[in-house]
Amino acid sequence: MFELLTTWLAGMQGSSSIVLALILGAMIAIDMGGPFNKVAFLFGSAMIAEGNYYIMGPIAVAICIPPVGLGLATFINKRKFHPNEREAGKASFTMGLFGITEGAIPFAAQDPLRVIPSIVVGSMVGSVIAMIANVGDKVAHGGPIVAVLGAVDNVVMFFVAVIAGVIVTAIMVTALKKDVESAPVKNEEVQQNEEIIKQATPNTNLNKLTDITNVDLIETNLKGETRDKVIDELISKFEQNGVLHSKDEFKQAILKREEESSTGLGMNIAIPHGKSNAVKRPAVAFGMKRDGVDWKSLDGTDAKLIFMIAVPEDAAGDAHLKILQMLSRKLMDDEFREQLLKIASKEEAFNLLETIR
C-alpha cells in the first residue's frame, strides 16, 4: 500500500498542483504521524533529493497545523476542553513549533469525529496556500522551526499559510465541540470520558524527566566522532542499566527513525528516539559531545546535546509523547541550553535535568 500511494502521488505531479496540495495536507493530518502521514512526508523528502522543494513546502506547513491549531483552541475556548486536555494543549502547541504532528494525538483519540475533520481541513487550507505561493522547503522536516532556521523559500507566505490553517482548525474544532460542562451527564458517561482521556493523554505518573533517567544514563564526554558511534555509546548506557532486551534490535529502531528524517533539530540539539519491543521500560539517556558531531541538523549545526529516548512499543502513544513534550518545551529556552553546555559532571547534569517536567 505504501508503494502504491507513493507511485500515485508521483503520478500527480503533472496534474493540478491544488489537488496535490489538498491530498498531501489531508494525508499529513489524518493519522498524525501514522502510515498516511509517512507516505506524504517521504514523498516530499524524495522530491527534495530531485531538486523539487515545492512539494515539501506545503507538507512542512501542514505538519504543524494540527498540534498548533489544537493548542490554540485550548487557549481561546477553555470550556470546550477538560482540564487535562487544556494542559496537553500547551505541550501540543510547543511540539507543533518543532514540527511534531503527534502532539495532536491525545485530542483525536478523545474526540475523533470532531477533531480529525478539523485538523484535516486546516492542514489542507495551509497546504493549498503554500502551494499557490510557491513555498519551498529544502530539508525533510516541517513546522516554524524550518523557517526560523532558513530552510524555507518565501518565508512570509509560509507563515501566512500556517496561520491560516491554524485559525481554521481552531475555529472549526471549537465550533464542533460541545462545552464539557454545558449539561449534566450520567456518572457512567463521566467515567467513560475520564477513561478515554486517561488512555489518550500521556502518563501522569511521569512528572519529570528524572523519573526515567539517572546518573548512570548520563555521559558528559561522548567519545564517538560520528553520529552512529555516538548512538552506540548511548545505547550501551541503556544496555548497562537493564533497559533493553536486545541492543541490536533497539539500534535498528533508532536508525530506521533516522532514515525517515534527521532527529537533529538544530540549536546543537539531537533527540534520537526508538519505539521497540526490545525496550523493557521507558528511559532517556543524555550525552554531551563538547566539540559536536554531524547529525544532519536543520540549521547545519553539530549536535552537542543529545537526548536518546527509548520506549516499549506498547507505550509508544503514552510515554513517548510525554517525553517529547517535556523536552521540546524546555529545550526552546536559550538559557537552559547554555546551562547544559556548561555542566562539568554527571551530577550537575542530573540536577539540571530535574527541572525538565
From TrEMBL:
Pfam families: PTS_EIIA_2 (PF00359). InterPro entries: Bacterial_PTS_Sugar_Transport, PTrfase/Anion_transptr, PTS_EIIA_type-2_dom, PTS_EIIC_2, PTS_IIA_fruc. The chain crosses the membrane at residues 12-33, 53-76, 115-135, 155-176. SUPFAM superfamilies: Phoshotransferase/anion transport protein (SSF55804). Keywords: Cell membrane, Membrane, Phosphoprotein, Phosphotransferase system, Sugar transport, Transferase, Transmembrane, Transmembrane helix, Transport. It is found in: Cell membrane. Signal peptide: none annotated. Residues 1-175 form the PTS EIIC type-2 domain. Residues 211-356 form the PTS EIIA type-2 domain. It is a multi-pass membrane protein. This is Fructose-specific phosphotransferase system IIA component.
